Amino acid sequence: xxxxxxxxxxxxxxxxxxxxxxxxxxxxxxxxxxxxxxxxxxxxxxxxxxxxxxxxxxxxxxxxxxxxxxxxxxxxxxxxxxxxxxxxxxxxxxxxxxxxxxxxxxxxxxxxxxxxxxxxxxxxxxx
Amino acid sequence: xxxxxxxxxxxxxxxxxxxxxxxxxxxxxxxxxxxxxxxxxxxxxxxxxxxxxxxxxxxxxxxxxxxxxxxxxxxxxxxxxxxxxxxxxxxxxxxxxxxxxxxxxxxxxxxxxxxxxxxxxxxxxxx
DNA sequence: TTAGGTGCAAACAATTTGCCGTGTT
DNA sequence: AACACGGCAAATTGTTTGCACCTAA
Lengths: 127, 127
Description:
The structure is a homodimer. Helices cover 38% and strands 20% of the residues of chain A. Chain A has helices at residues 8-18, 26-33, 42-54, 96-105, 121-126, and strands spanning 59-61, 67-69, 77-80, 86-88, 108-119. In chain A, strands 4-3-5 form a 3-stranded mixed β-sheet. Chain A is extended. At the A-B interface, helix 1, helix 2, strand 1, strand 2 and strand 3 of A face helix 1, helix 2, strand 1, strand 2 and strand 3 of B.
């Protein structure tokens, strides 16, 4: 019971992700696969991406909703995976990182966002 | 022409954001202000947050849509603000940062995400 | 007076979910 | 045959926008 079966769609979706260095959205993957799998549905793409992400086979990058901050000077954040709270961190913003990124990539780097994840002190205590 | 006026709502919204160390969503701000401003609308909250963010008075934190990555080992990313592409960066993932964040915050830090922003080489060339 | 702002509701966009037929085991 | 899976469409959720009215300047 509760076992997972083979699924052609899941394999397709995983292969598509594995075969690209882009970081596609669900929609992009859907568009890529649609031509050769005309009856693939977007819902299935979402379902399998979530499934794969939940079991750790792939990674998700996202803030589910926009958040706002009156402090406009760049500073690192901590995001609690249990309660969703976002905290400011009193760590220095390291401008040298931007320089390193520029050198490593050749892109025009104007800044960065550093977000830590884990369980916040409040949620830790509840256990 | 094109001048900006005083607006009680904008002031309220900005004050609400200024007065918290949380990083609220538009919805949260709306809920906070609603009781004392019963005819405030969520659309106005969004409109003013966007306005304030565009002029740099406040900061936005978000990935507009989820993106997926078959590479599950943590690594830094570069996000082009012109075309929206996300690239991998060949910079080392610095585990020492997590330790620093733990010490600075007291939260349980399990990892971090480092995202650089700017204009990618491709978009730079188009100009 | 006049252009910008607001409220409201409709539109849009991203994602999830229920239902039911299909395919894997 | 059982039950996970996929297709489809409806439902949710987050965000934007059009329009008629309101308000600061």
